[in-house]
């Protein structure tokens, strides 16, 4: 009798979220895909298990896309005579996974040591002596970075349920450190050659001296080594402090933990080639702040999108679940490769596309050389509107009928930290799913951390383009001002944040709110009235539906004001 093994590892989102630069996101996604691909290859070639999902795409031999965009949830099938054989297989997969992770860490560590020591031999005099006392700390991260989970059952739905239950029982071991913490996440120790030195006694160590004489020189030399080869033959300590490295990989003032440094280094071509990981071609770093821009622009607004489909569980319940999931996995990986390679270059780029799970960023590539502090938001809206059609590319009619796309789109101000943007993306995507799926949530996040958002089915996104004010123009200030007046007068219930607080007489006059909507968005009144499911996801009472309707109208106007007046 066949047995299904559903495998995943954690923390995936936490590993991605600890990011300041776009390069961090790429490095994290490449590592995750590489580890998943290692497990898939090991299960297929060494354990002779059937890989149900994800399937490998064979469009091009030795293709880089073959090794990237691999989902981290892996479904395997095999025949096991007893539970001991199952445990033996699980342990073999664990060993393969951690061996590859250790290989990544060791390669990054040895590359840094080798290159800095080579530079020391070239320059000899006036070059700092780095004493490498950090092997044990890298070893700690090799052992304690990940948790692995298996769901094992006789059917696919049962294996999925078993996996989800086991993920609730975490057994993670934290890694302790002393002195300062990473300037990126603030939760892990700073990687530098003396990280594990025996002289780092918390009672006697001089942390400011260590920072000035050990940590800062290390990152400054490493930054020049990665970015500015023209300075390698010179004594870096004689270079004026005003001369800074480009900072494409590491900035001179950064303090990264071992995993954070690893994410940067795996995007360096020498290291990625040695590890047989994908290279980043024509990589343009995302510049969000430019305080010294001669045009007077201090930062650009950027758009971040995170999407996800939902289809695997329903497929697993079919009699032909194995073949159906394999077909679906093949289709979605092909779609992910197409989406990654054909994303409009003038808009930005896709960070990863692991089948039905993807993340990307929209930004002005000419910033800060140009005077615009963002890409045109109307172009962004046009792209969003065509995304449902893009989602259907290469899929069968059956898949297109059943799979839904839930998307979170965040339009972020320059001052919002990247890790906060990613959290907003996930929350926006989750909101789209929780309100009925097949929806998009547009969230605008300001530098203060406050935000406005609108969640709507994809088919109503076009409303933003069909606005007309009382003069037949597209001046959004008219409807925005009217909304403010209605809220001030508590009209239509726009000022209430709780459906229970809305008076019954306002609910009874429900058509009045829709009539107000019809003034500015003509020809949509009847569509909203006939769409019985649009406002029923939070409750079944008339008051619940009314509250959702006015919140939907309110949020639409808020988003339209910011998106369509750029």
Task: Characterize the structure shown.
The protein has 19 helices and ten strands. It has helices spanning 12-17, 22-45, 64-67, 83-123, 135-144, 156-167, 207-227, 258-265, 269-274, 312-316, 321-341, 377-391, 397-402, 418-434, 476-488, 504-508, 510-520, 525-530, 542-563; strands at 2-10, 50-53, 74-79, 147-153, 302-309, 348-353, 357-362, 405-412, 439-445, 451-457. The relative contact order is 0.09. The model is unreliable at 57-65 (pLDDT under 50). Strands 6-7-5-8-9-10 form a six-stranded mixed β-sheet, with helices on both faces. It has a four-stranded antiparallel β-sheet with strand order 2-3-1-4. The chain has 566 residues and is of the alpha+beta class. It has three domains: 2-274, CRISPR-Cas system, Cmr2 subunit, D1 domain, cysteine cluster (Alpha-Beta Plaits, 2-Layer Sandwich); 296-464, 2-Layer Sandwich (Alpha-Beta Plaits); 466-566, no CATH class.
Top keywords for this entry?
566 residues, globular, 3 domains, 45% helix, Alpha-Beta Plaits, alpha+beta, 12% strand, four-stranded antiparallel beta sheet, six-stranded mixed beta sheet
How would you sum up the global shape?
globular
Uncertain stretches of 5 or more adjacent residues: 57-65
Separation, N- and C-terminal Cα atoms: 61 Å
Kindly estimate the percentage of residues that lie in beta strands according to DSSP: 5-15%
How many structural units, i.e. domains? 3
Order of helices and strands: EHHEHEHHEHHHHEHHEEHHEHEEHHHHH
CATH superfamily of the largest domain: CRISPR-Cas system, Cmr2 subunit, D1 domain, cysteine cluster
CATH hierarchy class name of the largest domain: Alpha Beta
Which structural category do the helix and sheet elements fall into?
Answer: alpha+beta
* Secondary structure: helix percent: 40-55%
For the biggest β-sheet, the strand order reads 6-7-5-8-9-10
Largest beta-sheet characterization: 6 strands, mixed
Q: What's the average pLDDT? A: 84
């Amino acid at each position: 009798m066949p047995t299904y093994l559903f495998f995943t590892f954690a923390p995936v989102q936490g590993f991605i979220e600890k990011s300041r630069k776009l390069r961090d996101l790429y490095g994290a996604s490449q590592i995750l895909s590489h580890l998943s691909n290692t497990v898939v290859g090991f299960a297929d070639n060494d354990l002779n298990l059937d890989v149900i999902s994800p399937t490998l795409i064979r469009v091009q031999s030795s293709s880089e896309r073959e090794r990237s965009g691999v989902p981290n949830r892996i479904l395997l099938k095999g025949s096991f005579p007893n539970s001991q054989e199952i445990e033996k297989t699980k342990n073999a997969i664990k060993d393969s996974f951690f061996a590859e992770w250790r290989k990544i860490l060791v390669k990054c560590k040895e590359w840094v040591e080798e290159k800095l020591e080579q530079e020391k031999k070239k320059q000899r005099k006036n070059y700092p002596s780095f004493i490498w006392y950090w092997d044990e700390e890298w070893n700690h991260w090799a052992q304690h970075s990940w948790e692995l989970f298996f769901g094992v059952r006789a059917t696919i739905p049962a294996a999925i349920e078993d996996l989800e239950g086991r993920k609730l029982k975490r057994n993670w071991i934290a890694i302790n450190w002393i002195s300062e913490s990473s300037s990126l996440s603030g939760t892990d120790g700073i990687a530098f050659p003396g990280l594990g030195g025996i002289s780092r006694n918390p009672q006697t160590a001089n942390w400011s001296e260590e920072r000035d004489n050990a940590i800062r020189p290390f990152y400054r030399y490493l930054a020049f080594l990665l970015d500015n080869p023209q300075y390698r033959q010179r004594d870096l300590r004689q270079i004026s402090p005003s001369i800074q490295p480009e900072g494409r990989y590491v900035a001179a003032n950064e303090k990264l933990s071992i995993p954070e440094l690893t994410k940067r280094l795996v995007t360096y071509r020498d290291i990625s080639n040695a590890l047989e990981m994908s290279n980043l071609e024509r990589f343009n770093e995302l510049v969000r702040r430019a305080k010294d821009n001669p045009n007077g622009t201090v930062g650009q607004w950027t758009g971040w999108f995170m999407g996800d489909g939902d289809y695997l569980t329903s497929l697993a319940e079919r009699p032909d679940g194995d073949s159906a999931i394999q077909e679906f996995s093949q289709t979605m990986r092909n779609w992910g490769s197409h989406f990654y390679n054909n994303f409009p270059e003038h808009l930005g780029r896709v960070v990863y596309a692991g089948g039905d799970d993807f993340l990307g960023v929209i930004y002005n590539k000419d910033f800060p050389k140009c005077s615009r502090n963002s890409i045109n938001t109307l172009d962004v809206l046009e792209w969003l509107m065509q995304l449902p059609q893009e989602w259907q590319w290469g899929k069968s009619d059956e898949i297109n009928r059943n799979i839904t796309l839930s998307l979170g789109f965040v339009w972020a101000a320059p001052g919002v930290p990247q890790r906060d943007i990613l959290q907003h993306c996930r929350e926006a995507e989750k909101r789209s799913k929780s309100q009925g799926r097949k929806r998009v949530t547009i969230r605008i996040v300001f530098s203060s951390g406050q935000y406005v958002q609108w969640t709507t089915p994809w088919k109503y996104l076009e409303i933003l383009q069909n606005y007309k004010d009382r003069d037949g123009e597209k001046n959004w200030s008219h409807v925005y001002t009217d909304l403010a007046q209605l809220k001030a007068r508590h009209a239509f219930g726009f000022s209430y944040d709780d459906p229970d607080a809305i008076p019954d007489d306002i609910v009874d006059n429900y058509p009045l709110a829709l009539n107000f909507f019809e003034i500015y968005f003509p020809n949509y009144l009847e569509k909203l009235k006939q769409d019985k499911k649009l406002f029923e996801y939070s409750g079944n009472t008339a008051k619940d539906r009314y509250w959702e309707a006015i919140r939907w109208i309110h949020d639409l106007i808020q988003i339209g004001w910011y998106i369509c007046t750029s």
